[in-house]
Write a structure and sequence with these properties.
- The complex is a heterodimer of chains A (263) and B (322).
- By secondary structure, chain A is of the alpha/beta class.
- Chain A has a single domain, classed as Rossmann fold (3-Layer(aba) Sandwich), CATH 3.40.50.
- Helix content of chain A is 30%, strand content 27%.
- A 9-stranded mixed sheet of chain A has the order 9-8-7-10-6-1-4-5-11, sandwiched between helices. A two-stranded antiparallel sheet of chain A has the order 2-3.
- In chain A, β7 and β8 form a beta hairpin.
- The longest helix of chain A is centred in the N-terminal third of the chain and has 17 residues.
- Chain A starts with a strand and ends in a 5-residue tail after the last helix.
- Chain B folds into 2 domains: 177 residues, 3-Layer(aba) Sandwich (Rossmann fold), CATH 3.40.50.620; 122 residues, 3-Layer(aba) Sandwich (Rossmann fold), CATH 3.40.50.1220.
- The longest helix of chain B is centred in the C-terminal third of the chain and has 14 residues.
- The chains are: A alpha/beta (263), B alpha/beta (322).
- The interface between A and B is large, with 84 and 100 residues.
- The complex binds flavin-adenine dinucleotide (FAD) (2 copies).
């Protein structure tokens, strides 16, 4: 099976304090730690496991600037056979549809049987996979937490829905699936793994190579414009306790006792 | 204009989901005073249509055995067929909405606006919406032209439900339009989540641990606190994904909905999928090392601290105070 996995480079929101930059034009990016979008690691792991079972190749692609190459390489260290980087100044400021349009062009260059995306990324939009499926006119399923290969024409899949219930379906190939966390346990990538792929060439695709007119992607093609970032005013917010560890712990005990939190 | 505003209603066990009336409010914040129309699909959905009719202009009923389970791949071509040009469709940003919405916007050739939490109104045909990014640490204003229509998913719980009953809605049976639908994805069965060894939905004091605990090795620090308090242990999704705790302990939209009196959130960022599982306005204490964490927007009491330092001291103080 030929599998394409789409991966996004994102600020690691578990590690970073995200704050709004001057004028709200962007978040402050100076000291951010970047990584692969959490969901995309599960997608790459799943693709590798499918290929281990039924044969084939895993290609990883990221749309981004040249710094996205580092995450493509990381996913190759996990075991993806090939990496691709789609980068062009004209791609800057793309909305979700712009990113999906670029990925569609990548997908059309080679014959893939299956495309995996993450269920969502840092913007919480959960949009690119579904758009890509529609652009290619392939069937789509979101929030997939189970994949069984059934012959070479179809998959049996599970979608995780509200309350953790699982919706089982059959889906024809080729298709696009967005992957939910927990579907597998993504393998650990060590320094040695990274070193092994350090000098592998990662082909770069620009708008010309993908046959994308600049006005269809990037800020020029975006239907949704992000105007600015801001910090919301939400009610009173929490009352913040301050002091030494001892003092704070003491206050917490008093509060918990008062509210019946200690039984 | 009302003729072009639609709300897609999802329903469970013969009743419309809570999101139905929230979507009416969202539609009105876009088009003040509007009476949107509803779309209801399924098998035997007459009662759902009647239930919501009072809140909508027209309720389009698509009643077909083939629609008994909501399969977005079947419904997408149906909606492409029946929606008028320039329609604005609102749906909930839940597991169904995010299955249907993005592809539908492409097939309709209209703008897609995902996971909207607020609307600043419409200026001409420019929609001004509010979204959240980075697990709610920052918000963003987004603008888009909806002259040609739009598909908008609305975060559950972000808008107050509209008062039911203002409109005298009319149910229009359009089941005929929903014949002969075909999809390359077919529904097989629904497997209910397993019960597990503990029922956190019945606990009134919950200590919930998130990814901020860092390592499986640190979970005992939390268990000791739980024991000292006489509370029950719950968690966020990454803890279950990592298999550190059982799925039955997960709080959130894809886990359990809990309604404790006291909820202690330890190293949990406060994503809406987690917070969406906490009901009944508990006394919510949050401990997080990041002062910007979204959990502090909903907590009653907040502490900026490293769990690994604070938890042992807290546990010891509780034990001493007994
Ligand atoms: C400087 C800047 C300006 C921007 N301006 C705008 C704007 O004006 N309007 C606007 O709407 N958005 C804007 N964006 C957001 C940006 O274009 C998003 O990357 C885009 O909306 C898709 O990401 P998502 O988080 O929405 O993806 P989701 O749909 O949440 O992600 C789902 C999956 O899609 C795949 N995917 C997503 N992005 C990529 C990628 N880049 N490469 C490969 N796979 C990917 C991954 O598999 C991911 O798991 C801007 C971003 C930047 C950095
Ligand atoms: C369809 C769908 C359904 C979902 N359902 C659920 C659900 O039911 N339940 C759920 O929880 N999630 C759910 N999620 C996932 C959700 O989007 C978030 O990814 C998740 O809630 C994050 O969990 P977290 O807060 O533990 O981790 P993170 O977001 O990584 O946050 C960790 C926090 O710990 C803090 N921290 C780090 N180290 C320390 C330290 N030493 N001391 C103190 N604080 C520290 C960090 O500042 C950060 O705020 C769902 C997602 C999707 C797409």
């Amino acid at each position: 099976m030929e599998i394409l996995v789409c991966v996004k480079r994102v600020p690691d929101s578990a590690e970073n304090e995200i704050s709004v930059g001057p004028g709200g034009a962007d978040i402050r990016r100076e000291d951010l730690v970047y990584s692969v979008n959490e969901w995309d690691n599960y997608a790459v792991e799943e693709a590798i496991q499918i290929v281990e079972r039924v044969g084939g190749n895993v290609t990883v692609v990221s749309v981004g600037d040249t710094e996205a190459e580092e995450i493509v390489r990381r996913e190759m260290a996990m075991g993806a056979n090939q990496g691709l980087l789609a980068t062009d100044a004209a791609f800057t400021g793309s909305d979700g549809l712009g990113i999906a349009t670029i990925l569609e062009a990548v997908a059309r260059k080679t014959k893939y049987d299956l495309i995996l995306t993450g269920a969502q990324a840092d913007d919480g939009a959960a949009q690119v996979g579904g758009m890509l499926g529609a652009l290619l006119d392939w069937p789509y399923a979101s929030l997939v937490n189970l994949i069984k290969v059934e012959g070479d024409k179809a998959l049996r899949i599970g979608r995780e829905i509200e309350g953790g219930s699982q919706e089982i379906s059959d889906i024809e190939l080729p298709c696009v699936l967005s992957i939910q966390t927990g579907i597998n346990e993504p393998r650990y990538v060590g320094i040695r793994g990274i070193r092994k792929v350090a000098s592998v060439e990662i082909p770069v695709l620009d708008g010309g190579a993908l046959g994308l007119p600049p006005e269809t992607v990037g800020a020029a093609g975006a239907r949704v414009r992000r105007v600015d970032y801001f910090v919301p005013q939400t009610g009173a917010g929490a009352e913040m306790l301050t002091g030494s560890t001892e003092e704070v712990a003491g206050k917490l005990v008093d509060l918990l006792k008062a509210k019946g939190g200690i039984k | 204009m009302d003729a072009k505003i639609f709300v897609f209603i999802t329903h469970t066990d013969g009743k419309a989901d809570d999101s139905a009336l929230e979507l009416v409010t969202a539609a009105r914040s876009l088009f003040p005073g509007c009476t949107p129309n509803a779309l209801v699909a399924g098998s035997g959905v007459g009662p759902v249509c009647q239930e919501v009719a009072a809140s909508f202009g027209e309720v389009w009923k698509f009643d077909q055995a083939a629609l008994a389970y909501p399969n977005a791949e079947l419904l997408r071509p149906l909606l492409v067929k029946v929606l008028p040009a320039g329609a604005t469709l609102l749906l909930a940003h839940n597991t169904f909405g995010l299955d249907l919405g993005p592809g539908l916007s492409v097939k309709l050739g209209v703008t897609y606006v995902p996971d909207v939490v607020g609307v600043d109104g419409l200026e001409g045909t420019t929609l001004k919406a509010v979204r959240q990014e980075y697990a709610g640490q920052v918000s963003a204003h987004v603008h888009c032209d909806i002259a040609r229509g739009a598909v908008i998913t609305v975060r559950p719980g972000a808008f107050k439900p509209a008062e039911a009953g203002a409109a005298a809605g009319q149910v229009v049976d359009r089941s005929e339009d929903a014949t002969g639908l075909a999809a390359r994805r077919t529904f097989v069965e629904l497997i209910q989540a397993e019960a597990g060894d503990i029922d956190i939905t019945r606990e009134d004091v919950l200590v919930s641990v998130g990814r901020g605990i860092g390592d499986k090795e640190n979970i005992p620090l939390v268990e000791e606190l739980v024991e000292a308090m006489g509370a029950a242990l719950s968690c966020s999704r990454p803890i279950v994904d990592a298999k550190w705790l059982d799925k039955a302990r997960q709080v959130g939209t894809s886990g359990k909905t809990v309604k404790p009196r006291v909820y202690l959130a330890l190293g949990i960022s406060g994503s809406f999928q987690h917070v969406g599982g906490i009901k009944g306005n508990p006394f919510l204490l949050a401990i997080n090392k990041n002062p910007k964490a979204a959990i502090f927007q909903v907590a009653t009491i907040g502490v900026v601290a490293d769990l690994l330092e604070l938890l042992p001291v807290l546990t010891e103080k509780i034990l001493k105070s007994r």
